């Protein structure tokens, strides 16, 4: 029996669930045993709003452990990874992505359109806050943080103080809690975060045997979708807590004309959005291309959004943007 591979993971229920799935899948595919090693990150220790903690709060300690060699590989929620490449590290696989859409969990089984004006909706992400305001439903959007259970308790628990919360469907799915969802939100209304629902399996770039081994976990269409979404995010120079949304769908396109073999080309459809936190400015565009051009599609869509003024929404042009305004109050 070979020595177990050490898989570094955050200790939250969600992180443990997703790392456990990856460990099982790797052992099933390769026969290699995997042990989970818990690593505490700054994001776990602080209860400040995520957009105040800075990029990478959930991943830096895991990456430090990888670099130091105390773990062999790590599983991250891909949307929590900063877009800047990490020196010496490599994303060796993106497993099949979960449904990336956001979910509404509301009292009395309500859907979004059934929420009365003034209904209180909790969410921590600027992207969701912005899109909830953009609906023009006069919702009272309340910033919340914490793990999935504590967020659900704000609606479902004995001390419930909110009418609804919005959170990633993927997180609920990994915890086996999709039963509480009252509506899975249409991406045309609530476009997900870049890479939401996807995992990144990361190891040291020079650990070539492991890079090769982990590749069995990769799902090419999921990987390409994430590449397109994150190219958009990186080109906008925005982080995981910016009011930027992107969602790529990979589908088989029309067979290309003459090919006797009837080549089926995989097409990628990317939609991106930049929304001001108060919802008054809302830029949304989409674009299609081939799978091989995933990164270029993301960059091109970001360039189009910048042409429309995304910069001023993101605060890169010296005007007030998310970095310079105050959020966190009940708007
Ligand atoms: N920002 C927190 C976070 N990071 C990853 C997930 C779970 C969903 C995923 O893996 O994309 C969540 C919870 C949420 O957004 O509700």
Explain what this protein looks like in three dimensions.
The protein is α/β, with parallel strands linked by helices. It folds into three domains: 111 residues, D-Maltodextrin-Binding Protein, domain 2; 83 residues, Periplasmic binding protein-like II (D-Maltodextrin-Binding Protein, domain 2, 3-Layer(aba) Sandwich); 92 residues, Porphobilinogen deaminase, C-terminal domain (Double Stranded RNA Binding Domain, 2-Layer Sandwich). Helices cover 31% and strands 22% of the residues. The chain has eleven helices and 13 strands. Strands 2-1-3-10-4 form a five-stranded mixed sheet, sandwiched between helices. Strands 7-6-8-5-9 form a five-stranded mixed sheet, sandwiched between helices. Helix 5 links the parallel strand 6 and strand 7. Helix 9 runs parallel beside helix 10. The longest helix is centred in the first third of the chain and has 18 residues. The N and C termini lie far apart (58 Å). The C terminus is likely disordered. The structure holds the ligand NCc1[nH]cc(CCC(=O)O)c1CC(=O)O. The site of ligand PBG has 9 residues, from strand 8 and helix 7. It catalyses: 4 porphobilinogen + H2O = hydroxymethylbilane + 4 NH4(+). Monomer. Belongs to the HMBS family. This is Porphobilinogen deaminase. It is an enzyme of class 2 (transferase).
């Amino acid at each position: 029996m070979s020595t177990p591979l050490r898989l570094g993971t955050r200790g939250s229920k969600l992180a443990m669930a997703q790392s456990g799935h990856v460990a099982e899948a790797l052992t099933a595919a390769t026969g290699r045993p995997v042990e989970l090693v818990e690593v505490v990150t700054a994001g776990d220790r602080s209860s400040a709003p995520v957009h105040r903690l800075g990029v990478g709060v959930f991943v830096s300690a895991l990456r430090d452990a990888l670099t130091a060699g105390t773990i062999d590989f790590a599983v991250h929620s891909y949307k929590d990874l900063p877009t800047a490449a990490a020196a010496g590290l490599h994303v060796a696989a993106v497993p099949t992505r979960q449904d990336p859409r956001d979910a509404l969990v509301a009292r009395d089984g309500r859907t979004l359109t059934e929420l009365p004006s003034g209904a209180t909706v909790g969410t921590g992400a600027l992207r969701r806050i912005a899109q909830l305001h953009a609906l023009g439903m006069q919702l009272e959007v309340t910033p919340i943080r914490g793990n999935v259970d504590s967020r659900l308790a704000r609606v479902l628990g004995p001390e419930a103080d909110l009418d609804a919360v919005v959170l990633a469907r993927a997180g609920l799915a990994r915890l086996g809690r999709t039963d509480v969802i009252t509506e899975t939100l249409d991406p045309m209304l609530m476009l997900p975060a870049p890479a939401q629902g996807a995992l990144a399996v990361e190891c040291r770039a020079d650990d070539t045997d492991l890079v090769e081994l982990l590749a069995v976990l990769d799902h090419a269409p999921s990987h390409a979708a994430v590449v397109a979404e994150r190219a958009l995010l990186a080109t906008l120079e925005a982080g995981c807590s910016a009011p930027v949304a992107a969602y790529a769908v990979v589908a088989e396109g029309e067979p290309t004309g003459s090919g006797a073999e009837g080549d089926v080309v995989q097409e990628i459809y990317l939609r991106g959005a930049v929304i001001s936190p108060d919802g008054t400015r809302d830029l949304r565009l989409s674009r299609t291309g081939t799978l091989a051009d995933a990164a270029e599609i993301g960059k091109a869509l970001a360039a189009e959004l910048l042409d429309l003024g995304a910069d001023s929404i993101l605060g890169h042009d010296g005007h007030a943007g998310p970095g310079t305004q105050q959020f966190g109050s009940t708007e």
